[in-house]
Amino acid sequence: MIQFFLTLFFSVVFVIAAIMATAHFWRWFYWAPTEEDEVSYCRTDDGRRLAVLRYRPEGEPVGLPVILCHGLSSNRFTFDLPGAPSLARFLRDQGRDVWVSELRGSGASDRPRLWASGMPYSWDFEDHLRRDVPAVVAHVTQRTQAPAVHWVGHSMGGMLIRAYLAGNDASGIQSAVTLGSPVDWSQMQNPWYKLALRAARLLHYFPVLPLPFLVKIMVPFAHRIPNFFLAVYHPPNIEPEVSKRVMALATELVTASKLWGDFGRFLETGVFGPNGHEGYLDPSHDTEVPILILAGARDEMAPPEAVAPERRSTGSPGKPQTEILGKDTGCAEDYGHMDLVVGKRVEQEVFPSILRWIGSHDCEVADSSVGMHTRERADT
Q1: Residue 11 CB burial class (10 angstroms; 0-12, 13-18, ≥19)
Q2: How far is CA 95 from CA 20, 47, 347, 359, in A?
Q3: Which parts of the chain register pLDDT below 50?
Q4: N or C: more exposed end of the chain, with fewer CB within 10 A?
Q5: What pLDDT does 210 receive?
Q6: CA atoms of 76 and 97, how far apart (whole Å)
Q7: Can you give the pLDDT at residue 203?
């Protein structure tokens, strides 16, 4: 009997070690540096250090600074993936001063380490919303002396700015763009989500969820996984090698179970809110900040009806502008989730829409900020 349990124990240890080794191997195999000009850090009000990567344009910057924010269990590579289209570099090459933020638990920001760390796996959506977002916005406006910024968020990065604008002083945000960011969770009907919800009830027993580790072992055949199963991208709309790099580099190895638990609650209750009852986007919290919502027509992770519920109330003034990216709207292919930022034709079909949006909403405030913005650049 003792021999049986010892065999079982060491077998489990071996399997776990093999998974971890495989995940680290693929991350090492595809590793390449991003192309930022500098990395700076800001502190949240609870003392966490967040990394912010700056992409400087040649010459004087155009308009207001742009903050790019990644999604759940992701990082800087969302916007600057080696060998793939890069929103950070695209906007920089168009004269924009671009700042890529990494939230707590991701990339070069404070995150728990395997053996010893002063940061526990205990952050949640509210920590990102109430602490990380305002810290990043304040850091960029202070560094550039700009009166406001444009915020572009992918997935959770867009959810954060929608919630932030609905419940906070939005004076530091000039405009916002969201890509594949679900806010009506009653419309999330992917059957795999329902299965995941059952497992989510066990999360409070574990500090971390190793799902990203498991995802990384799929790297060799990532481009062959059906969209409805993995829901990361629409395979016809992404180069095979890029799909592998997404899973190897743009996915964090582990994420706090508490944060995953928040998403489980959103799914279970259908309410995008802090307690399962009151939503962040309550009508009484409407914002005047202009918002562009981009949704993929074949996004199984964040379907259009969940990303843009405002489409069901057309004709209402002040509602965000929505674009559904797919063949029916003139794109060469339907878009999924990650291919909204690294798809085959994003430089022709997605990035120009973002550039036009932020350019059209610089308005008068940009004129008053350019001088200060340029002076700061010359002094650093």
Answers
A1: exposed
A2: 41, 33, 16, 11
A3: 115-116, 313-317, 366-380
A4: N
A5: 62
A6: 16
A7: 59
